């Protein structure tokens, strides 16, 4: 007590309190761990791990960290600079009411947002069911047979539809038709993607699509101006020619309108944003994608399917997992390695909560308000240019356009300037009758809504009868049961209980960085000032957003050493694509169009070659040596061989093998000597921050996984953000945006194509990373990196006597992750890395990364956020599992009936009357004493993956399957 009473005020203010809460081990624990490594200090460990030649000479040029309350106050003041007006802009972004029970219990709940991609399906049955609900919702609304578990946004989904159409179309042409009434941001992204695929884009009226020799076509329904057209005839004409018809559609409109499937579409896509996800200045939002079942193996993204567990019980899993990029590499359907799981879950829950009748009522109300508005204008003699509409009308405003837009803005409304003489007005769930009356008054029309409503109702709205939906939707019981808040709350809790997330235990996934997602970082995401802004709102209304984005960009420049940051990519894979596009644009600007060869080490993430292929590049693999490093001799030979055709090297640093390669600068120099550029995959950037940087090692461009290094949570498989950093010479070639520019009027990249639908990607989650860096400060970030490396080395040292550590640096150290070799155990006992992964569930842990980057191994990354006690629990579990394997080796347990082969053990199995295994129920369920204190019960047994792939079923399971 006396010590505190005499301490200086600076100590009592606890300015570093957040750093201490983010970093798991305290100083005493750090000392214990260092002693176990035989080292006197963290500095000594870093000296043995990170090559001296690439170490930063100075501390990061960032301010000291701020306490949580202070950082929140600063950000709140920044957010207050945004001006949130009611948006009638539309164009794919609409106001929506997030049901409070979903907001509090999903969006703001770490049990949902800290979960990982459901690769370990037995402990992900909750979010898998939620995703299956989403898929069923999409199947019902689109009228197609198969849907995936979401894509990044509507524009990139459209680009994926184009690529898929080329894969499956029988037409030899390389031309693709795009409806001129598509959203402009969609056309922007599709045009960028088409250029690097070598496709010709043909733009014109939707009705003319089949009059061209094209392999596919993209039509908008309803279109950008609100017009609802029946595309049945044009889709039939496309099909007759062997071309693929894709329809970008609005899920809210599909509750009332004929489905794309009924019209004959092969693909339907769109954004589920208006099903409960705030606009958030552009994202994140779940795109949806549906197609015919016979195209399943060509469809991009992840699909949730139904299989069975070893007891015959229905069980969910990601189906057709061989489609994943780490297996198919440059032959992958796309480079998508994430989706928008959290947002897809929210959209699915929105449908579950409201049910079909509730959703139809919301849609009908939106349409009614639009029809009332249009009727009021017509009665006043104001031309309405949209004939058949759902929620959006185009109004001829002539010379009054600027005046009307200004009057609306002054009244608190944002309208869309569709042309110099026309304004677009889109209604949504948040629109009120008073809003419509106020808008009519602004336009100089009468606002007797009762009379206008009666006139519209008498006509049955503004949609012709032959365009109305006739089939039933959302008939499954899940959409017809949970309509009270109590029912919904319990349903959400039931699903959450089936999932293991960071709120239960560490998730030691190599290369995935499942660190603390602090509450203070998450709070600003749902502030109305960030959540409710349209991405195309006048930029002067988004000054708070721009200040926050610019501030984060400056932070990232300081950390990476780059000269410019592009915030548009809304996933790591999108960041890869954006970086390679910048490189190709750079070469083209210098007249070196022939530079198309991309060197990629064999240890690289599978998204790397998939991305290069999407950019039209020729992938050349570079060998790795016995220590897991890039084979410098092979690199030099191939760089020389391709010489004038060399475009880039894609490399991950530290390597995917978990080692700081000491010759990284020489590797970069070799590529530069031959005129190539170096792209650094930012998956492992969290091992560099404060110690070295992409620019310091010689990279020209790199993406930054904000959902890894900078604390945006994984959300069960998304959202993510993957902005890129660029050296000055590449900065002029970053992505722009056709609707809302990403820079100043004199920007060097003006007019260059976009890579995502919104100018700043998923902008509403950027405050998470801003808060993290602000609270950590430069020294805190460096300390986090050092402790991440310490935790990994401690874990490797403790496990090395039991599992061989496959790769280490020259001084026997690993970076922030380590690879444990399971292959000798498999050879001796038949036990595989999969068996170990499943057995870890019985101990209450999610498995590390399996079989990547080396088959037959597991890659472990503890992160800096796990304290010594949690690390020791994981180590104890792994050692106990090794002893179970030893019992098999000694013949004490049979090779086909042991705790590993039977894992995971469910509560149902352990409590069953019959137990015929040669080990006890207690060994199965409570293998170590502390497991019982916080037992996580997998809800299903080991899932039969082969059965799931052979019996493809990707919709909601009939209730009889659970009760029969």
What do these coordinates show?
39% of the residues lie in helices and 11% in strands. It is of the alpha/beta class. The strands form 6 sheets. It has a 7-stranded mixed β-sheet, sandwiched between helices. Strands 15-21-20-19-18-16-17 form a 7-stranded mixed β-sheet, sandwiched between helices. A 3-stranded antiparallel β-sheet has the order 11-14-13, covered by helices on one side. α27 links the parallel β19 and β20. It is globular, with a radius of gyration of 28 Å. The chain starts with a helix and ends with a helix.
First-residue to last-residue Cα separation: 66 Å
The total strand number stands at: 24
Fraction in beta strands = 5-15%
- CA radius of gyration is 28 Å
Mean pLDDT: 95
Low-confidence segments: 322-327
- Tally the helices: 35
Residue share in helix: 25-40%
Overall, the morphology is globular
Largest beta sheet: strand ordering:
2-8-7-6-5-3-4
Specify the structural class. Answer: alpha/beta
Largest beta sheet, briefly?
A: 7 strands, mixed
């Amino acid at each position: 007590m006396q010590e505190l009473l005499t301490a200086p005020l600076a100590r009592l203010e606890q300015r570093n309190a957040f750093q201490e809460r983010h970093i798991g081990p305290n100083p005493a624990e750090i000392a214990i761990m260092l002693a176990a490594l035989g080292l006197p200090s963290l500095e000594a460990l870093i000296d043995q791990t990170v090559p001296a030649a690439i170490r930063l000479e100075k501390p990061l040029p960032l301010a000291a960290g701020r306490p949580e309350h202070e950082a929140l106050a600063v950000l709140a003041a920044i957010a207050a600079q945004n001006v949130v007006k009611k948006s009638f802009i539309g164009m794919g972004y609409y106001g929506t009411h997030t049901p409070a029970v979903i907001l509090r219990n999903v969006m703001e709940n770490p049990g949902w947002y800290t979960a990982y991609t459901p690769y370990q399906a037995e402990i992900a049955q909750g979010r898998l069911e939620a995703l299956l609900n989403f898929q069923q919702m999409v199947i019902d609304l689109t009228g197609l047979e198969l849907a995936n578990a979401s894509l990044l946004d509507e524009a990139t989904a459209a680009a994926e539809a184009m690529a898929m159409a080329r894969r499956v179309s029988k037409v030899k042409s390389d031309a693709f038709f795009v409806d001129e009434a598509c959203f402009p941001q969609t056309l922007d992204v599709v045009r960028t993607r088409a250029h690097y695929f070598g496709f010709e884009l043909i733009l014109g009226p939707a009705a003319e699509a089949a009059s061209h020799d094209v392999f596919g076509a993209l039509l908008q329904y309803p279109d950008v101006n609100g017009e609802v057209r029946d595309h049945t005839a044009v889709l039939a004409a496309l099909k007759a020619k062997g071309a693929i018809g894709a329809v970008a559609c609005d899920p809210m409109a599909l509750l009332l309108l004929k489905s794309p499937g009924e019209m004959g579409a092969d693909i339907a896509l769109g954004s589920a944003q208006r099903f409960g996800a705030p606009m958030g200045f552009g994202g994140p939002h779940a795109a949806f994608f549906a197609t015919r079942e016979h195209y399943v193996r060509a469809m991009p993204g992840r699909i949730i399917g139904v299989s069975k567990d070893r007891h015959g019980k229905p069980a969910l899993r990601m189906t057709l997992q061989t489609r994943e990029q780490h297996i198919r590499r440059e032959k992958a359907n796309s480079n998508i390695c994430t989706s928008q799981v959290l947002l897809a879950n929210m959209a699915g829950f929105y449908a579950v909560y409201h049910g079909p009748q509730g959703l139809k009522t919301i849609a009908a109300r939106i349409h009614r308000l639009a029809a009332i508005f249009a009727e009021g204008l017509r009665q006043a003699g104001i031309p309405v240019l949209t004939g058949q509409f759902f929620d959006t009308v185009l109004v001829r405003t002539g010379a009054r356009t600027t005046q009307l837009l200004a009057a609306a803005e002054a009244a608190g409304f944002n309208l869309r300037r569709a042309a110099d003489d026309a304004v677009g007005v889109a209604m949504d769930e948040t629109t009120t009758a008073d809003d419509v009356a106020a808008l009519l008054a602004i336009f100089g029309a009468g606002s007797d809504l009762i009379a206008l409503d009666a006139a519209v109702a008498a006509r049955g709205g503004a949609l012709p009868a032959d365009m109305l939906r006739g089939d039933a939707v959302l008939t499954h019981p899940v959409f017809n049961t949970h309509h009270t808040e109590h029912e919904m709350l319990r349903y959400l809790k039931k699903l959450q209980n089936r999932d293991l997330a960071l709120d239960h235990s560490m998730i030691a996934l190599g290369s995935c960085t499942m660190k603390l997602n602090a509450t203070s970082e998450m709070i600003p995401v749902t502030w109305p000032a960030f959540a409710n802004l349209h991405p195309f709102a006048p930029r002067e209304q988004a000054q708070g957003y721009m200040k926050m984005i610019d501030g984060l960009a400056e932070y990232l420049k300081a950390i990476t050493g780059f000269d410019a940051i592009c915030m548009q990519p809304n996933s790591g894979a999108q960041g890869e694509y954006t970086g390679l596009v910048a490189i190709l644009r750079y070469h083209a600007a210098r007249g070196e169009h022939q530079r198309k060869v991309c060197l990629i080490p064999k240890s690289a993430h599978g998204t790397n070659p998939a991305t290069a292929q999407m950019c039209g590049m020729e992938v050349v693999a570079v060998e790795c040596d016995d220590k897991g490093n890039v084979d410098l001799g092979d690199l030099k030979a191939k760089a020389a061989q391709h010489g004038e055709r060399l475009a880039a090297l894609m490399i991950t640093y530290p390597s995917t093998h978990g080692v700081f390669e000491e010759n990284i600068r020489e590797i970069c120099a070799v590529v530069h000597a031959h005129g190539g550029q170096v792209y650094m995959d930012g998956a492992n950037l969290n091992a560099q921050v404060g110690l070295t940087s992409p620019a310091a090692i010689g990279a020209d461009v790199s993406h930054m996984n904000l959902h890894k290094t900078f604390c945006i949570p994984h959300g069960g498989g998304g959202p993510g953000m993957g902005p890129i950093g660029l050296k000055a010479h590449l900065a002029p070639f970053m992505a722009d945006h056709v609707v809302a520019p990403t820079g100043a009027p004199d920007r060097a990249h003006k007019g260059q194509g976009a890579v995502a639908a919104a100018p700043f990607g998923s902008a509403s989650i950027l405050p998470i990373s801003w808060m993290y860096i602000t609270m950590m400060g430069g020294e805190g970030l460096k300390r986090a990196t050092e402790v991440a490396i310490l935790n990994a080395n401690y874990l490797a040292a403790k496990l090395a006597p039991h599992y061989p550590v496959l790769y280490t640096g020259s001084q026997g150290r690993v970076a922030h992750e380590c690879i444990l070799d399971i292959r000798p155990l498999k050879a001796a006992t038949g036990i595989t890395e999969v068996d170990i992964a499943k057995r870890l569930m019985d101990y209450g842990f999610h498995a590390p990364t399996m079989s990547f980057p080396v088959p037959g191994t597991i890659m472990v990354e503890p992160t800096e956020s796990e304290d010594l006690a949690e690390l020791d629990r994981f180590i104890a579990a792994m050692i106990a599992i090794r002893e179970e394997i030893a019992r098999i080796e000694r013949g004490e347990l049979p090779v086909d009936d042991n705790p590993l082969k039977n894992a995971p053990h469910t509560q149902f199995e352990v409590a069953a009357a019959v137990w015929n295994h040669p080990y006890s129920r207690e060994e199965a369920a409570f293998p170590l004493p502390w497991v019982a204190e916080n037992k996580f019960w997998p809800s299903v047994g080991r899932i039969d993956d082969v059965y799931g792939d052979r019996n493809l079923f990707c919709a909601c399971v009939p209730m009889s399957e659970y009760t029969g």
